[in-house]
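Appendix B. Extra example for self-study. Work through it before the problem class; the solution is given directly after the inputs so you can check yourself.
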Amino acid sequence: MGELGRIHQLLVPVGGLRLAINLEVVVMTWIVILLLILFGLATSRRRSLVPRPIQVVGEILLAQFYGLTEDALGEDLAKKYAPMITALFIFLLFSNWLGIIPHLEEPTKDLNTTLSLGLMGFAVAHYVGIRSKGFKAYISEYFQPIFFMLPLNLIGEVSKIVSISFRLFGNIMGGSIIIMVVSYLCWNLLLPPFLNAFFGIFVGTVQAFVFTMLTVVYIAVQVK
Amino acid sequence: MDMSPETIVAMAAYSGAGICIGFGAIGAAVGEGYTAAEANVAVSRNTEISGDIFKNMLVGQAVAESASIFALVVAILLLFMDFHGAPLIKAAALTGSGLCMGLGALGSGIGSGIPGGQACFGIARQPAAMNRLTTNMLIGSAVCQTPAIFSMVVALLLLFLDFSAMPFQPGWAALIGAGLSTGLASIGSGYGGGTVAGASCEGVARQPLSVGPVTTTMLVGQAVAQTPAIFGLLISFILIFRTVPATESLAPAMALFSAGLCTGLGGIGPGVGNGEAGGGAVRWVARNSAMAADLMRVMLVGQAVSQSTAIYAMVISLVLIFVM
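Solution. Structure tokens for the complete assembly:
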């Protein structure tokens, strides 16, 4: 149980600063990227009008997320941003599922991963907002409904990043801590597969979807 | 009896863990029970799609569970982390951490069950809108967990920060106050956010085509309902990061403690009230989406007025921190 709350870090001195690199997370993220490339190749190689099962999986996934993005953003923006949204979902899904394989860990268990994805969504949302409304209308949003609401609106925007990234981080880390503690308490007998099925597959899928949909909704709020 | 700092820190960690998961288990259980109750009604109304309603109920409950999972995480960290050689003030930080996460999970747990229940009921009424309802439920109940996430942030800060530079005398009160401030203020905001999300699921079921304006109004309403929790978070941060001079007397310590208690308790009512206002607006945006802009304006003004009491509490807290 001693490994709880301990992280393997590589400290690189750069100038006067020390860069801390979480080695496990980097390796696990590369594994996820590799799996994503394999998945992409498997779904798109040898396409045909009568699809093979794996092609159907890819098509359903894309069609679903294209539909969801179109519902929220409208047709024009959906064409542009649906690929990003789908990629975000698959990345999160594979990341959350990675923990069910022994000796591998979810990259989303680390706050750095979720926080950077949250920041990415935030940046995209505000970029789309400025592009679609113009800079003046975008700035005046912060003074709604009255001008002195500015600090609260700013805090509200920052709290979006905090909440979206800590939600994913808390759920995934929580799941993995629960699996670890319960497995330890029952000597790894009987229970771990069910816990992995619930926290790894079920909660992992739901939280990946929640993160993706919230990113879409944050973009949609900026556009309107 | 051995009363070295190490023993007291360990005692604080254990009692903090108990408080944390004890309070944290209340909310999610009530919320999930509500989801299941509505799912029962829904199944008996529309028996043909009982399988879909059941699936939706399970997904809704899994999301509502997050609040108590956060509490469990903090409790387990309190139990198993290594606090050897920690100064006495860490005991206060650990108690504050447990209080913060336990109380903070209460409101969000109850609140995030409401959209789940309303979505089950809505599917029975309007099976064609099932996908939209499930998506709306997930967004709503995830956003109403934001106050619990704020509490988790404060709890983790209290757990992992090093407080050895802080003097013990007013410091202990500041740290427990920091925990109480965000924890208590999250109760109202979490429940209020749930009311808004529940109303939006009801609205989408009534008029599936209005899903766009309904979702926007819901998000704005929830964001405003979360403001009391943000006030609590602000006071917590001030209490944690402000350097206080060491003192012998108890009065400054009690001022800091009451500052946390004040914003915390003061945020409960406005959170619930803002939720009611948002819920009303969302429900009627669904029925009459041509009036969405007017309804949102009335909602925002109403919420601002109902929030004034939280602002009074925060002003008193700031006076207690900076003047007393």
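Self-check: The mean pLDDT of chain A is 87. If your reasoning did not lead you there, revisit section 3.
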